[in-house]
Amino acid sequence: MSNAVIRIINIAKEFSETPGPRARDEGDFSGEAFLEEVLRPAFIQATKDGGVLTIDLDGSEGYATSFLESAFGGLAREFDPAEILKVITFKSDDEPYLVDEIKGYITDARKK
Amino acid sequence: MNRPRTVPYLVGGAIIVVFCLLFRAAERGLHGFSINHAIDPVGLATLGVNIFIAFFLQYYFATRITDDRAEKDILIDTVRDAFSMLRTCRDEVSGCGTSKIAAEKQKKIISLYRALSNGLENVETAVEMSRCKELRKDFDSIRESFFKYKAAATGKFPYDASDISYQAQTYRALNQQLQSLAFKLNQYR
Which of A42, B113, B116, B178 has minimal Cβ neighbours within 10 Å of its Cβ? Predict the structure, then answer.
């Protein structure tokens, strides 16, 4: 049996039900704040533990492209996108297209 | 308007009556009619095939055509819903112009794109379950266009002139792809 540590982050419960814009100076609950306060530390911890990080996107009022790109694209600019996709899994029953959208931001983050 | 259900029975009854009269006339040799009592296997087989085709066409093809049309109507209805959501998104976004957009309005825009995303997902799921599942491959480009359109509308607030131009381009692209899908669904065989 696998002993991989699985951590689940529900953005609506652990960050905000109303995720905001791209950067901190543009408004509350930005993608930048989510990356720095929640996503990056959890990703580093999951990598250290050899575990899996599940991002649960359900329960919020919706995500702007700017929030998603800033958070997940931002993570992919700091770490290897392939490693990110290996460690992080996504769950979105409310809006299934979000998963493909986020994976697109992760893989395209370094192309610009 | 629906045809009365009794019509086929009346026509069938009339045909039987005509045949009975013809056989009666042939048996009696009236009006130059005659009847050959020898059984012709080829004629009999032809009759059997004709009857089979008549029933096959009526019960198989007619039913299938009706089912296909009903299925396409359901699919086209879901595409129509997606069109309606797409137009709502366009109207909301185009009403913003280059002025500052209040937080409430931003939330509304984001939730409209979420509804559109789910509308497109509904169409994709319905197509996958239908006989038109071959059209599933069209959704790769539809999804791509949707992501671009969403990025144009929710990537940054407030908008500038180039954002508005990009929104118009990406809206047109997504709209065209949905129209193309609707036409393909309608003509699918």
Answer: A42
Min Cα separation B126/chain A (Å): 15
Task: Tell me the pTM.
Answer: 0.80
Handedness of CA B97, B99, B102, B107 (dihedral sign): positive
The answer to whether the Cβ–Cβ distance between B110 and A64 falls below 8 Å is: yes
pLDDT mean by block of 10 residues, chain A; 112 residues: 80 95 93 97 95 96 95 97 96 95 94 71
Give the residue from A43, A18, A37, A38 showing the smallest Cα distance to A29.
A18
Q: Could you tell me how many CB contacts below 8 A there are between chain A and chain B?
A: 56
- The ipTM (two decimal places) reads 0.88
Q: Are B8 and B16 in contact (CB under 8 A)?
A: no
What is B69-187's CATH number, 1.10.10.10, 3.30.930.10, 3.60.20.10, 1.20.120.340? Answer: 1.20.120.340
> Where in the sequence of chain B do the CATH 1.20.120.340 domains occur?
69-187
Cβ–Cβ under 8 Å, residues B154 and B59: no
